[in-house]
Amino acid sequence: MAEMNLKRTFRTLFGYEEHLIFFAPGRINLIGEHTDYNGGYVFPCAITKGTYVLAAKRKDQTIRMYSKNFPEKEVITLSLEDLSFQSSHDWANYPKGIILKLFEHGYTIDHGFDLLFYGNIPNGAGLSSSASIEMATGVMLEQLFNLSINRTDLVRIGQKVENEYIGVNSGIMDQFAIGMGKKNHGILLDCHTLDYQYAPLPLDNHVLLIMNTNKERTLASSQYNERRADCEAALRDLQAHTSIDTLGELSPKEFEKKKEYIKNPVNRQRARHAVYENERTKESLRRLQKGDLQGFGDLMNASHISLRDDYEVTGTELDALAEAAWTQDGCIGARMTGAGFGGCAIAIVEKNRTEAFQKNVQSYYRSVTGYDADFYEAHAGDGAKEWIGEVCFT
Ligand code: GLA
Which of 242, 247, 249, 253 minimizes the C-alpha distance to 273? Predict the structure, then answer.
């Protein structure tokens, strides 16, 4: 990408200089996939790549928004009085949704503003670019309008935007990881109670690699909603015989005793994933705390297999990446991350073997799918906040 200076772009777009800068990261999920909306545990971390927003308050009721990532959409101009979802507004529906939900929760935003967005996470790659835009907008409004918002409330508001405004029935993981992230740490989150703990990521002489399938996630949201509905149906069958609120309350042992209550075999399979994945997630922290990185990697591999066979959200591309990674020297573990249906996988790889790793995985991936994957090193970073300093990318 050519050198860009966002401050200059802000001035060119809006005709003045003063602004504040905010940043919200993207996220990867280390383990605990499709467990959040089942009341289970997740173990994500925020990453150092994310969304920047340069923002300034206006004196009138107008909102102007521009994204460097979607220049073809030009500057989108609207009024604070009409925040209804409009498909032509595309990416700008995420900030609009946040403003609207803040209104609905009684927060006062009494002026318009000018916003310039730029994200350095790939769009639609399953690294939560949309939740990143939402949380960047949230912290920006919090500061510009002196709103006093508890961070977990902002996280829940972000989730509501997805559920009620965008129409994806997603869980709380993405907004939580992005809102609450901490440098060099993962977050083990109980999605039922929102109790959480930060866990250092002792990677020693390993790195965390993101592998992007570069496959567009078509129909991902409708298939996502279907998986969630399968789990809800399984839960209803179980609830006819046992008093539980979520699948996350079942241990694998209890599940094995009760699974026949779930009438539809596909729903049973989905529930099995949710229950066993939840167990793996809790176990993964125990292994990390014991310094058993290989044990952690084994759980990552088992997670991918369960998402492939029981949850059926991986697909040819993610499977090709994970399977290639598993056979490489120095790879501790690999799995898809996020919702699936394309998007990204992650791998823990010995530092001095990453070059051979990428070369071999790439060549296998190309032979199976006919196109190239991208690789990036991931670093666990802080959650959404005001950004102090330059935003100049080369
Ligand atoms: C998406 C959703 C999350 C979570 C994951 C799967 O990222 O937004 O809430 O359900 O998929 O673990």
Answer: 247
- Please report the pLDDT score of residue 222 as a whole number: 87
Does some domain include residue 149?
Answer: yes
Check whether residue 220 and residue 362 sit in a common domain: yes
Mutational pocket test of ligand 1: of 30, 34, 161, 169, the residue with most ligand atoms within 8 Å of the beta carbon:
34
Q: What would the pLDDT profile of 189-217 be if each residue is shown by its tens digit? A: 999 999 999 999 999 899 999 999 998 77
Ligand 1, residues at Cβ distance < 6 Å: 29, 33-34, 36-37, 170-171, 173-174, 338-339
For 248, the domain range is 206-378
Q: Which atom of ligand 1 is nearest to the CA of 42?
A: 12
Q: 194 and 85, same structural domain?
A: yes
Residue with tokens 């090709």: 320
195 and 243 within one domain:
no
Longest dimension (CA), the chain: 67
How far is the C-alpha of 221 from the C-alpha of 207, rounded, in Å? 31
pLDDT of residue 393: 60
Report which of 165, 167, 203 is spatially closest to residue 186, judged by C-alpha positions. 203
What are the distances in angstroms from CA 93 to CA 156, 161, 166, 173, 282? Answer: 17, 9, 8, 20, 35
Active site residue ranges: 174
Helix (H/G/I), strand (E/B), else coil: 37: helix
Residues of the chain falling short of pLDDT 70? 1-4, 218-219, 392-394
Question: How far is C-alpha 349 from the geometric centre of its chain's CA atoms?
Answer: 22
For CA atoms 231, 235, 236, 238, give the dihedral sign: positive
Global confidence as pTM: 0.96
Number of neighbouring beta carbons within 10 Å of residue 201: 20
Residue 394 lies in a domain: no
Q: What CATH number did the domain enclosing 228 receive?
A: 3.30.70.890
H runs (alpha helix) in 181-219: none
pLDDT of residue 392: 63
Residue 389: what pLDDT? 76
* Residue 371 amino acid letter: Y
| Interatomic CA distance for residues 361 and 375, integer angstroms | 10
